[in-house]
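Q: Structure tokens for this one, please.
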Amino acid sequence: MLFSKAPACGWLVVGLGNPGLNYARTRHNVGFRAVDALAEKLGVKIDRARFRGLTAQASAGGEKLLLLKPQTFMNLSGEAVRDAASFYKIPPERVIVLSDDVSLDVGTLRVRPKGSAGGQNGLKNIIYHLGSEDFPRVKIGVGKKPRPDYDLAAWVLGRFPEEDQKAIDKACEDAVSAAACIIESGCAAAAQKFNGKRI
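A: Here is the predicted structure, written as tokens:
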């Protein structure tokens, strides 16, 4: 019996978040929102259960992409990323991660070609499971804690106030464009175009 070879995917685009309605539209789930916006733009739905996550295959700029929303909860996101990257033999430099960042103002983007987790536990777990920090990421600012003693978990698992929704929606659109720019022109071009971008 002949087994058909899995269709090749040249890039893995990962949105970070926590599964379940309880976490929908929280600050920590802005990566899910961004990758959903990308899926909508590409005309696909991220709904196929694979690699401990939900996936969709799409094409953009002549490249085949696998879109991934890990369903392992944030702190174990790397398990899904490792499984998908390993299956398609995608190197870290072609794994783009969309995530929240509490050090950036609401709606601000920061594109980085590599680097530390910066305290983001999903990124930390991806670094661990890929054995590399050398993967591009698009960080979406969700705002700093209102005061130093405010519980960080409560902050990232909280929802955006109504006045921030427009900025976050725009940031997710820009994150989609930034990911596309990384694929087509590289991280340096995307960083130059999108870092610090706000309404």
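A few notes: The chain has a mean pLDDT of 92. The first strand starts at residue 11 and ends at 15.
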